[in-house]
């Protein structure tokens, strides 16, 4: 896993993690890390106990920037889906793209995928919708203006189930 105390976290999102009965079971902190990992900026996941003790710490990324600023959702199996933006060619980025990664409950990578076009596409949040995940933010790869709202729905396997652009030619 990623060493704690080396590098830096330049963005951070924190949320409560719950056990199978719905009781608070610690926290997950996500952000962008410089100082270790594969690229310039990597997604850093830091799983904490309720008292702040570290359960696990790991960074994921490839050549380019991968920054975990969009948040996370906890999945029924105890794993996590994390939203971030990426400029990594390993994810197919042609600009700055929406990206998701899925981990198991111990933080081990299950898969990661990029979604985007040639422009600037960056997520700002995600939520569970039934058995799927919705990622929302802004995009200009498919927009009619400068930056329009963008909504992406994916299954737990990462397959895209739908996408929608909101805006006008004057945005």
Strand-pairing-aware structural class:
mainly beta
Query: Helix fraction?
Result: under 10%
SSE pattern, N- to C-terminal? EEEEEEEEEEEE
Rough outline = globular
Q: Which residue ranges are poorly predicted, with pLDDT under 50 across at least 5 consecutive positions?
A: 1-6
Strand composition percent: over 45%
Major sheet characteristics: 4 strands, antiparallel
What is the tally of helical segments? 0
Average pLDDT for all residues = 79
Number of strands: 12
Describe this structure in words.
This protein has 171 residues and is mostly beta strands. 0% of the residues lie in helices and 57% in strands. It has strands at residues 8-18, 24-34, 42-48, 54-60, 66-74, 80-86, 97-103, 109-115, 121-129, 132-139, 148-154, 160-166. The strands form 3 sheets. A 4-stranded antiparallel beta sheet has the order 1-2-3-4, with no helix packed on it. It has a 4-stranded antiparallel beta sheet with strand order 5-6-7-8, with no helix packed on it. Strands 9-10-11-12 form a 4-stranded antiparallel beta sheet, with no helix packed on it. The radius of gyration is 16 Å and the shape is globular. Mean pLDDT is 79; it is low at 1-6.
Secondary structure elements and pairings:
Elements: E1 8-18, E2 24-34, E3 42-48, E4 54-60, E5 66-74, E6 80-86, E7 97-103, E8 109-115, E9 121-129, E10 132-139, E11 148-154, E12 160-166
Antiparallel strand pairs: 1-2, 2-3, 3-4, 5-6, 6-7, 7-8, 9-10, 10-11, 11-12
């Amino acid at each position: 896993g990623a060493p704690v105390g080396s590098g830096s976290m330049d963005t951070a999102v924190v949320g409560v993690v719950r056990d199978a009965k719905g009781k608070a079971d610690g926290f997950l902190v996500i952000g962008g890390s410089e100082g270790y990992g594969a690229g310039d900026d990597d997604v850093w996941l830091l799983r904490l106990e309720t008292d702040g003790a570290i359960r696990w710490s790991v960074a994921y990324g490839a050549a380019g920037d991968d920054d975990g600023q969009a948040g996370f959702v906890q999945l029924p199996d105890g794993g996590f889906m994390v939203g971030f933006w990426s400029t990594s060619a390993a994810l197919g980025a042609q600009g700055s793209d929406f990206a998701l990664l899925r981990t198991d409950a111990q933080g081990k990578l299950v898969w990661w995928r990029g979604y985007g076009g040639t422009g600037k596409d960056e997520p700002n949040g995600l939520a569970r919708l039934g058995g799927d995940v919705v990622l929302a933010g802004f995009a200009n790869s498919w927009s009619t203006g400068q930056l329009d709202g963008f909504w992406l729905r994916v299954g737990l396997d990462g397959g895209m189930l739908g996408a929608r652009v909101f805006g006008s030619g004057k945005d």
